[in-house]
Amino acid sequence: MPAASMRIAASRLLRSSNQLLGTLRMASAKVLVRDNINPQVITMQYAVRGPIVIRAVELEKELEKGAKKPFTSVIKANIGDAHAMGQTPITFNRQLIACLANPSLMETANFPSDVIKHAKELICCCGGKSCGAYSQSTGIDIIRKHVADFIAKRDGFPCDYENVILSGGASESIRNVLKMFIRRDAPKKTGIMIPIPQYPLYSASVEEFGLGQVGYFLCEERNWSLEEDELERAYQESLKKYDTRVLCVINPGNPTGQVLSHENIETIIKFAHRHNLFLMADEVYQDNIYAPGSKFHSFKKVINEMGAPYNQMELASFHSVSKGYMGECGMRGGYVEFFNLDPEVYVLFKKMISAKLCSTILGQVMMDALVNPPKPGDPSYDQWLKEKNAVLASLKERATLVKEAYGSIEGIKCNEVQGAMYAFPQLMLPPRAVEKARSLNMEPDFFYAMQLLESTGVCIVPGSGFGQKEGTYHFRTTILPQTEMMKDMLERFKSFHTKFMEEYK
To answer: Where are the domains of the chain?
Structure first.
């Protein structure tokens, strides 16, 4: 072959090889990688299921395989999951769910007659008389009506069931409402005012949706009260960066366990009205009230009591089966009630949620059990009331136990747990412990919580995951472990804390 022809052939072969190599590279490359993923997914954080919790799961698996640790079990005090901590389900609720899941039980099981009647009423409203069918995106109408009746009875003011939408837990509704404030083309992000410390659902969702987080600090010195001056400071400062349009309030508080007074709620409503803010009231812990003198007041009730012009304000209120006395986290039942929402916006909201079809039917049924429980004279009533009161009494006992236990430990301050399911004690960490944490590029309370977990198997959430004032350190712990487990947890904690403080004094 002539030299020129050989050069041409070699050139063609090289081109062909390069093309093949390029094709192979393209075939092996991932389309979706960290560098091109939605950046908000990278920056969002959710401390309640963060690195410490991941490590707790690893420790459980290591213990199962026979690994030797300074402890024999992991106690997960990181999340408000009542059943995972040993709470017994309410009998009526589970009998009702069983009948919906397997309708033949209505004929064969020895269930009370009110359970059967209740189940038949609900199954007839399911498509094909099966809980396996879709419902409307807004939820099963009869359950929405029962929710509206519950709200009207609770507040003493009318509630139109058309303003109630059922969802997969309150979290789904909260996220859906926040989505409505995303405006990509606006010169400023929408500012969302959230309490600090706050439940990370809010900060995570705000970050994920590209909204602006406007934190207002709760006053720890006054048992985590919500102060008007602080609201005003946060709002005015936010206007430099954001178009602030939403005020979120968690009552009773998570992670702080406070219960807002009627007067405090009035102050919040007046502030929101003055600045034309949309109110979001997270009220999922409304049944969890423990402190003498504390009482739950819904924002809708107070707004109506205040009359004009406040009763024309826009409000979204949320409730859930995951908390209260039921603790049915895994059932994913919740609702949002809208008050004074613009009719056109409501149509668009319903269009938006239609893309997810509907929330789980059994979650909707569990919500019905919450808002439409057995009544006096029903066969199930006495047992239902006994079980409900036992759960709430036990939670109240543990709220007191936690406050007293942490309050008696040197280097810890703990406010009264007035409500909800959590305590949020402050850690007075020695400077050497803070320096050690900083040298490891860790938040000091994260360092403390990780050391606690590795030494004792007790899993808590560092306060830095909820937000806190600069220079302060906290942790969140639930009051959900059953009493004996709680005492074990507190003993482990006290022993560790004493050694930790001694090491770094």
So the answer is: 43-86+389-504, 116-371
